[in-house]
Model the fold of this input.
Amino acid sequence: MTPQDKHHDHCHGERSNSACSACSQDKDTIMACRLAGIKNKILVLSGKGGVGKSTVAVNLATALSIVGRKTGILDVDIHGPNVPKLLNLDKAKLEARDETLIPARFGDLKVMSLGFLVARQEDAIIWRGPLKMNVIQQFIKDVDWGELDWLVVDCPPGTGDEPLSIAQIFKSDVSAVIVTTPQDLAQMDSRKAVTFCRQLKIPVLGLIENMSGFTCPHCSKVVDIFKTGGGRRMAEEMDVPFLGSIPLDHRLVETGDAGAPFVSAFPDSPAAKAFLQAIKPIIESDGQ
Done:
């Protein structure tokens, strides 16, 4: 039994909307108490922007929730927090109880983002590393996540402050999913995300190739408008599992703007089926 497990045994009976009384003074102990109730943590990473990482993170979290897992999504993209918009929560106001923030809800999915805490969506967050680390710590310490099977963390592109900060908070108790697209440029940068994980000893659950082909709106056939197979080849070369290819669908833009996760809005589409297929090895990694 790990020290975190022992602490969880101690505080489990006292946990309601706030950390237990024994945790009330020490920041690290409070975070350990919060994290003890979260069974699995996944960082969703990409080497570069523009690959649809936030869309993938939201749909993976929604898919986990659909199959009955208690799931939360934490948006640590400080400068571009898009998760509230993708879940139609951009006007949501967080509730505070006993000096603890209650995550917003999208159905059964628990959601936390800096987007809930800025006055206006167009406000720029101009912060250096230490400030980012502080607010990410608060996303764990001051938020009542409760008991979760999975916490999906939407990280900004690259391997900078935010993914490093959240990895340091989770320590070794975290895994990762890498998102790329068929282009060589995206895959070149995604290799850096795999290397980032290996340097920090974070297991890579797999790689997803997004925007892989285009689903015809008339016949539903997937047409390869970009070259295809690059994500699978990269996964083989980097020796990480390949979780699948997500085709483009013209309705993805509509559902994203409307705040309706594609996987639940169009469950019979090739893209939704690909998301549901992608979570199977993720769930199996937990033995569920």
